[in-house]
Amino acid sequence: MTRLYLILLLSCISLTGLQAQCYKENHAFKEGEFLSYEVSYNWGPIWVDAGLVTFSIDQDKYVGKPAWHLKSSGKTYKSYDFFFKVVDYYDAWIDPGTFHPYEFRRSVYEGGYKLLNTLRYDRRGQTVYSSTKTNNNPVRFDTLKPGPCVYNPLLVVYVARTLDISSLKHDARIPVTVLIDDSTYSIYIRYLGKDVVKNRDGKRYRCVKFAAKMVQGTIFRGDEDVLVWVTDDENRVPVYIEAKILVGTVKAYLKDMRGLRNPVLSLLKDSK
């Protein structure tokens, strides 16, 4: 299994109709929110529960300023570690009012591959200072000017949830640009309409469905590799994600959600 956590994170980018617009106003989430997902991988004809991915928002400070600390982790279960061990941590510090990023850190251990990437943001110069360390290689430094509305992999998940998707038409394609390590990547999202999804716990949700074209030549084929179902309410929480990769298929199921900002109006009454 390759890059389990990055698959889910990139999948979440595709789930909420991220348009060519910047962050404006947040009605989707608040400090204290916690989401978790169980990730399964098909090993030949067998589906195996491989790991757990979590997302949370905590109150914090950054250089003395009030901040939100966005945290996410992805870890394989011990029973899966013998095959391909993953221990990933993503952290982002942002201004809770403007969503301006202060700093982003990505720490990765995946089957012996190690990566530590840090992005520090200069607000006035719209410049990003990147440092990247992989395995025993020297640290690589870079200065980037990605332009407006290009977000790091963790922040883009939350920014996407704030945007208005009410005017999207069926099959509409929306361009997305994300900054990963020291490079920017362009993908697109295709709106597929409304659907109902039954989760593993028996609960049924009204959802909005999207497909996404991912980056060819990485872990994806470059087709519309990801399908995502997100709650059709103000929370915009992903319920189910399915991603095709070069060596199989990965599925992510909502396991837990707490501290939501809004009522879960997408939950159908006949659910368990």
Topology record:
Elements: H1 4-13, E1 34-43, E2 46-62, E3 65-76, H2 78-84, E4 86-94, E5 101-110, E6 113-122, E7 127-134, E8 140-144, H3 155-161, E9 173-180, E10 183-198, E11 204-213, E12 224-231, E13 238-245, E14 248-258
Antiparallel strand pairs: 1-2, 1-14, 2-3, 3-4, 4-5, 5-6, 6-7, 7-8, 9-10, 10-11, 11-12, 12-13, 13-14
Spell the H/E element sequence: HEEEHEEEEEHEEEEEE
Ranges where pLDDT stays below 50 over 5 or more residues in a row are 1-7, 10-20
Task: Give me the number of helical elements.
Answer: 3
Count of structural domains: 1
What structural class do you assign from the helix and strand content?
A: mainly beta
**Helix residue percentage:** under 10%
Question: How would you describe the overall organization of this protein?
Answer:
- The chain is mainly β.
- It has one domain (4-258): YmcC-like fold.
- 9% of the residues lie in helices and 52% in strands.
- The protein has 3 helices and 14 strands.
- The protein has helices at residues 4-13, 78-84, 155-161; strands at 34-43, 46-62, 65-76, 86-94, 101-110, 113-122, 127-134, 140-144, 173-180, 183-198, 204-213, 224-231, 238-245, 248-258.
- A 14-stranded antiparallel β-sheet has the order 8-7-6-5-4-3-2-1-14-13-12-11-10-9.
- The chain is globular.
- It starts with a helix and ends in a 14-residue tail after the last strand.
- Residues 1-7 and 10-20 have low confidence and may be disordered.
